[in-house]
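DATA SHEET
Item: assembly model
Revision: 1
Owner: S.N.
Input lines:
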Amino acid sequence: MPVTDEQVAAQRALLRDDMDQHKVLYAQLDREMVRTGYSALVTGAFCQAVERRFARDDRAEVIRFVGDVRSRSEALAKELDPQVAERVIRVVLGDGSIADVDDVTAVGTQLVLLTAIVADEQLDEAALDAFLASARKLADQLMA
Amino acid sequence: MAVTDEQVAALRAYLYIRSDEEADKAEQLFKQLARSGAVEGIGELLYAAFTVAARRKFSPTWTLADIVRFVAQVRAQASDEPSLLDPAAAEHQLRTALGAKLPGYPAEEARAQTQLVLLPALADSLGLDQAGLDGLLAEARPLADQLITQQHRSSRA
């Protein structure tokens, strides 16, 4: 089952930092589909964002970025595990594994980092649409 | 029992490593301490120096964000050795040194390792030259002596 328009719309609202709209759209999603299609969309978008943001061998930049994200709020500092966050990024860059990290933690961490990367990029509406279209394609491939 | 001149000299040498020769010298001083059985008190001196340096760096006002950024910066500089510094332990140690009341963590050996990595980074970030290091250690030494005295009292009680 490929990613749906509704899942893309929910994620688009999140990445535009429109939390009210995101909550409404996310609540309307089929729960089973959230576990599959929506999670795949998060992962697809996260992989795209990480590959755009980081050079392959720059571990130092990954550490600095996670520190920067965690320093944006006390809640993030306490809730985002820095080592898990760094590993979740590095695995996209072909470094290491997150086989021991449970899916909920992995996707939750990806979502926080994805939101931060996209916020930093300050994408306009067209760029965000292009980004999500590309992420959707990757997510469909991941689920195929 | 109090901090000795040899312990201060060893920690000072460790904090002023700028070359392989200075690294060798620091290592030799620590080996001499270990050989002579004169290591008791070095942990307290390390902790006191770490606390003084942390307070100089971050007090009077600091936020968790300041601590998170500093630890990330230190870890980024040693990114080829990711296991050198546990970020959770490092942030916990710094916040505790700055007066935050937090549950005990991590284990004693890991605390010392964390302080050993963070202290030179704090000294560097404070821009301490040799005279500055002497000042830091001079401030830390009586605090360490107090800690040692307190520990002896509590162990006898």
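QC remark: The CA atoms of residues 54 and 122 of chain A lie 16 Å apart.
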